[in-house]
Amino acid sequence: MRTYFNWLILVAVVLACGCVSMPTQPPPLPTYRIHAPDVIMVRVRPDSSITQRTQVRPDGYVHLDLIGDVLVEGLTPEEAGEVIKERLAQYVRNPFVNVTITDFRSMVYYVIGEVASPGDYPYTHQMTIWDAVATAGTFTQRAMLSRTYVIRKGEQGPEKYRVNLSKVIYKGDQSHNLELRPGDVIYVPPDPFARVGYAIQKVLFPITALLGAAGQAAYAEQSFAFGNDRSARFSGGTSPPGIPGGLLTTVLAGAPPIGAP
Fold first, then answer.
1. pTM for this predicted structure
2. Is 190 helix (H, G, I), strand (E, B) or coil?
3. What is the pLDDT of residues 9-48, one digit of tens each?
4. Distance separating alpha carbons of residues 52 and 34, to the nearest angstrom
């Protein structure tokens, strides 16, 4: 939870710094190295009975039948295969070892804001921004898809991209469907009507807390009139999901579109 909150603060700071234009070709990912708690598949030929799927422990080791614990932390799949091959050579003649990563659990991305299930999710290769939003249960009816933001770690610090998911979904424009990178933060902001509802929620919260259940029901009905039909779910806080203290709503105003000078 603390990590998730820290990401929200980072999003607020980065959004306040302005957008950068959408890259036409994302830079290639560096060679992936195995880390805990990734899950790897070790296939061995000719003895397929040794083939197994295993998770990397916090200490960086995996336990394999016949040879025991093997350190794979920080190795590429190819390097891990060579290490396992050397160990197996004591028991199997001319083994062929192939190591693949089945679950990239050490790499995650974050989806916050107007999605059904905000939070962090395991990264898999060749995902797009729309893939990420869909994995998070897709967007809510309060989402402002035309102003979706991606915050990414850059060489000079965090970078912000503004993408138009409306064009991706309704027009098939893939130029806005940015390829995902590990550690990306995707923020789907609320539309203007939802922001009004959230503002009312924030103002009425001290009162509804005192009134109890009856006040909560009245508050939910009032918020619904401004487009927040699920306000009761968030009645324990003063901000919409993924928006600390309303700060993001403020800094988004007047942000330039993709490619704007």
1. 0.58
2. strand
3. 555 444 555 555 454 445 566 688 999 999 999 999 988 8
4. 16
Domain boundary among 58, 74, 103: 103
Number of domains in the chain: 3
Question: Is there a contact between 76 and 34 (Cβ–Cβ < 8 Å)?
Answer: yes
Burial class (CB in 10 A: 0-12, 13-18, 19+), 6: exposed
pLDDT band at 227 (very low <50, low <70, confident <90, very high): very low
CB-CB contact of 29 with 181 (8 Å) = yes
Identity at 241, one-letter amino acid code = P
Spatial separation of the C-alpha atoms in residues 16 and 245, rounded to whole Å: 14
Q: Which residues pair with 154 in a beta bridge?
A: 157
Does residue 78 sit in the same domain as residue 121? no
Predicted confidence at residue 246, as pLDDT, reads 43
SS3 content of the chain, % helix, strand, coil (to 5): 35, 25, 40
* Helix (H/G/I), strand (E/B), else coil: 224: helix
Residue 221's pLDDT is: 59
Quote the CA–CA distance of 135 and 183 in Å, as a whole number. 15
Tens digit of each residue's pLDDT (9 = 90 or more) over 76-113: 999 999 999 999 999 888 899 999 998 888 888 999 99
Domain that holds residue 55: 39-103
Residues 6+ apart with CB under 8 A from 179: 26, 126, 127, 128, 129
